[in-house]
Amino acid sequence: LIDLTLITYDDKSFQVHSPILAAVSSFIEKRLRTEGNDHSENNGGNVQRKMVSLGPDVDHIGLQAIVEFAYTGDVQSLDKDNIVLIRAAAQALAVPRLLELCNKVMRIMEVGTPVNEEQKALSLQQMKITLQSIEHLWADRVGCDVTLDVDGSSFDHKVILAASSDFFRGMFTCGMRESCQTRVTLPFLIASELEALIDCSYSGNLPLAWDCVFEITCMALQLQFQTALSLCFDFMRQEMDASSCLDVASFAEAYGMSELLEEANDFILRNFWVVSDTAKFRDLPAEKLLDIIRCDGLCVPSELAVFRAVSSWVQVDPEERLSQAGILMTGIRFPLMTFREFREVRAINLRMECFGNKEVELYGAALKEFGFSLPKSQEQYRVRHPKDVLVLVGGDQLNPDAGQRIASKELWFANSLRNGTGLVKEIEWRRLGEIPDKPKFRHGVATMMGRLYVVGGCYFYTKDDIMKSAYYDPVENIWRRLSDMQELRSNFSLVANKELLYAIAGDKEINTNIDSVEMYNPDTNTWFVQPLHQALSGQAVATIDGSGIFISGGFNSKYECLSSMFLYHPETGTTCLADMANDRALHCMEPLRGHLYVAGGLCNLRKYYTDQLACEVYDPVADAWTTFTSLSVPHVGAASAVLEEKIYILGGYCQDNYSESGLVHRFDHSLQQWQNMGKLPGAVSDIRACLLRLPQH
Q1: What is the Cβ-side half-sphere exposure of residue 120, based on CA atoms within 13 angstroms?
Q2: Where is the BTB domain (predicted)?
Q3: Structural domains for the chain
Q4: In this structure, are residues 322 and 314 in contact, taking their beta carbons and an 8 Å threshold?
């Protein structure tokens, strides 16, 4: 598909694609616009090639740099020895962006900064601009060398089609008849869907909605538009909800997309209670419904929810579906119900039997299973194994023998989530390992690029006990040291944002907190200190889609609880946002569905503190707070994390009497309820938690 040969004054030739060069060179673009679109067939069907001889200002070194810049957005060979030749060629062929790059590199070399790092940062941006320029050529029908006839005409560049689609690459480069044609008729395609895919090839954008995504995905599969296909899959994964997950699962199963099918099925299991209330659920085939309710990983408030879903499915068409009710009831684990719940089963089953013939017996079979179960058998649970595991790090607790507090160096992870009888739920904890060196609490924990970072903290309630930092690589199952922070800090917040770690505020000693932020760059293993608008400790932080770091509450320099909310940007500093309705510190804040949920902690009570049970949720678009279900027990100095779109609050203590609960509570957004998930395995106060992908899990 090469259609242009450039010949330098020293008789060196370069073969290129004219639309690519025209996107960076005004000289080539002008020639392309002047010549117009020549669709004549020649050379036995080969691509019609043009030749351009260049003047003495362009030698092979300069032209090679221009070609490299057009195709990659970068010039690896740009240095002080050839920059003059490259600038001369860029001026002769009118390549303003390369000229600008040369001028910038010359300024960088004057101050001694490495050139390669600066060029790498600009490469992606330059490629985006080049693609936009090619899109403008396409819009103006400049350099288009093929007309695709699909319910009308569409003028396109063969090279762009071939680069985007394996189908068109084979058509135009493998000697097929269409490779020598300037008009290709495609009667089997739908114009609107093909237009969306071609537009994506030029712009990199693919507007999608549920009313068109499956059709566009089918065509992307048929024509092998790989980039568009990835965008379609990303849309389905990110936008999947209760009303669309069953369609995604059916689509993925029909086309053999195993990974997408696994994700859709997992979404159905995690959100079964909400999915079962949709119209599409009531249209499920009985076999598919049975497969779902038989899964161990089915996530429901109680087993009664499974029975209600099955009975509502049957009652959509009792005459037709009652005969299938018996086999569906075998997927319900009646031993997991309480006597009160089973009374509802009895009433509904007997009522359904009245609609059928004498051969349908539902209540008797359910009663038999309910009454003859073993009380402590493994069948007493639905056991779910999340892909990401909840990890607990460090913390401290009261030693019951000595009556003193002891810090922990243990790491635990939640191996499985278990639904028991009625509303009983448990977490199966397993030991993961230990922190290097001494135990610690009031430290910082974050995950970034698959690694667990443990930073700062202390191992006793005195100053100068601030601990060193390290990270754990679960793939290699090894700990490695980090460089030390420049400032001592505990009771601070650690968060990952755009592949950097941020250690925000904290205590440097008892009753003295810090007004700074430290940024950690894992590539250079270095920390950089930046100022913060005020001294803080015991605050909570979170990020939403890399839009900045939200900081809520905490203690000020007088150790008064705050109700403030700020947005912190490393470049611009802090921006004040709407205050919370309640002051709080030593609390938790987690992002969920584009909002920030705040729970737990303590608050001011005249000269003292008391437990804060009220919970609030922040909407960053409206810059407003609303309340949600309050906690039933205090969680001061607790850990938190979001696992499978549910918020976990782990451990902590009660401020009023300093008792330790050791409990785990989970907030289910769909039910607007806090659920008791059992107890922690070790330390319960000032612990930290995060999610981690374990290879062996």
Answers
A1: 4
A2: 2-79, 144-210
A3: 4-139 (3.30.710.10), 146-239 (3.30.710.10), 259-383 (1.25.40.420), 385-692 (2.120.10.80)
A4: yes
Which tokens belong to 614?
A: 């009220």
Residues in the chain: 697
Helix, strand or coil, per DSSP, at residue 573: strand
User: How far is the C-alpha of 453 from the C-alpha of 459, rounded, in Å?
Assistant: 17
pLDDT at 497 over 50: yes
3-state secondary structure of 628: strand
CA 468/CA 180 separation, integer angstroms? 68
Q: In what order do the strands lie in the sheet with 615-619?
A: 588-592, 595-599, 615-619, 624-628
533, two tokens: 């608008």
CB 105 within 8 A of CB 113: no
Task: Give me the torsion for CA of 520, 525, 529, 532, rounded to 10°.
Answer: 10
pTM for the predicted model, two decimal places: 0.82
Alpha-carbon distance 635 to 560, whole Å? 18
Residue type for position 170: G
CB-based contacts of 234, cutoff 8 Å, min separation 6: none
Model confidence at 351, pLDDT cuts 50, 70, 90, reads: confident
- From residue 455, alpha-carbon distances to 8, 109, 464 in Å are 58, 37, 15
The pLDDT tens digits of the residues spanning 587-609 come to 999 999 999 999 999 999 888 89
